[in-house]
Each structure stands twice: as structure tokens, then as C-alpha cells.
Amino acid sequence: MSTYRNSFTFLFASAIALLLATFCHAQRPVQVLYFRAASDAPKEAHLYVGDKMVAETRLPRDNFSETFEIPAGDFKLLFLTGLLEEGKKAPKGAPSVGISEKWQKVLLLVFEDKKNSTMPIRVQAIDASDTVFGPGSIYMINFSDVGVAGTVGDKKLVLKPKDVKIVKNPVSENGYYPAKLDKYVVGEEKPQRFIRQMWGHDAEVRQVLFILPKPAPLHATYYCAPIQGLVASENEKRTSNTDL
């Protein structure tokens, strides 16, 4: 009986160790978009955690990049224009963004920052975990000074200036649905018509919708970028960069 118990204990401990090892090496899928970058802006980036490069990616302008991967864990992700020389640390001014260990999938939004001489960008990270901003949902970012309200499919929306809202599955089935949104301009009593369109819903596709400032009388416009294929590869240990 003791031999059986010892064997069972060994197998159980081995299974737990394997599970922990898999978790520690797990990779998270990431996509990035450098929204409306200038023609002379950086076109690619090397991503570091400390002095270890964990990914290299293009910085596309209009649509999100192909999926790449970063390790699991809670860390600050650094952006550099090139490779670090061996034994050297990243410059203090390198643009960075915090990544939570709880995030299972990540989207990165890159914007111009001419004040940064190391790399003229700033980065915003989005938790794109399936339970937070999952497939079929719309991540709405309002960069303008107008409020936006109305309906997106079956969902009501009230989006304040400089705010963010996630519309989860505007309709229950794939297909087209009406988007009816008005904009509310400070100092004006009545709302202005903003969007009256048919939008498409795909339960497998996330979308990021930017509401952008425009001069009066428009005050705002919008741009939508779809995200497809945000999944980790089956091989989670492709490179030694997985170990932090």
C-alpha cells in the first residue's frame, strides 16, 4: 500500500510541476497599431523586458499587426528602435507600458510623442482577454471633446469625452445591424447627428473604434480597426525569450 501511495504522490507532484512549468512559459498573443503615424515615424520596434528582448514587430498604420507573443507575468514592456548591445541596459527614456499578469491577451496602441528623443512614441495597452474585451465586442475610445450617445445594435451607449466603453456583442447573431449615434457638443442645446450606418457583427472579430476630434462644425469623426486571429501559437516554447 505504501508503494502505491508513494507512486501516486510522485505522479501527482510531477503533474503539478508540469502544470506550473507550462504556466510559467505560457505566451500571450499581442497585436499592435501605430494609429495614423507620420511618414517618418518608426516602422518597427524591438520589445524588451529588462535587458531581454521578448518580441520584434512592425508598427502598421491603418490595421493591427500580425499576432506576436510576449511572456506571462507582470512587467513593464520597453520599446526600442533597435537591438540592445550585449551587457547594456535600455535607455532611461525608452517608451514603456505596464502589462498585468492577469491579462491573457493584449492590444497595444502607439501614438506619436515628439518629446521622447529615445523613440518618439507613447504606448497604451488594452486588456483584450476574452472575458474583458472578447471576440464580437467593440472597444470605443473617445479622444474628442464631445459626448456620444445612442444605440449600437441592441445596446445603448453613453460615451463621455476622453472616455472608453466596451460594447459586448451588439447583436446576438452575425450580420448587419443599425448604429445610431449622436454627438453632444459643449455649449449647444441640441445633439448633432453623428452616425447613421449599418455595421457588421462577426462573433470572432474584435473591433477598436476611435472617435477623433475635428474642427467645428464637425467636432468629431471616427475610424474602426478590426482585430482578427488574436490567439497564441500552439508551440509556447519556440524561443528562449519566453523565460524572464
Please tell me about this protein's structure.
With 244 residues, this protein is mainly β. It has one helix spanning 2-25; strands spanning 27-34, 44-49, 52-58, 68-71, 75-80, 96-99, 106-112, 121-127, 138-142, 147-152, 155-159, 164-167, 175-184, 192-201, 206-213, 220-227. The longest helix has 24 residues, at 2-25. Mean pLDDT is 88; it is low at 7-25 and 235-243.
Annotate the secondary structure layout:
Elements: H1 2-25, E1 27-34, E2 44-49, E3 52-58, E4 68-71, E5 75-80, E6 96-99, E7 106-112, E8 121-127, E9 138-142, E10 147-152, E11 155-159, E12 164-167, E13 175-184, E14 192-201, E15 206-213, E16 220-227
Parallel strand pairs: 1-7, 9-15
Antiparallel strand pairs: 1-4, 2-3, 2-5, 5-6, 7-8, 9-12, 10-11, 10-13, 13-14, 15-16
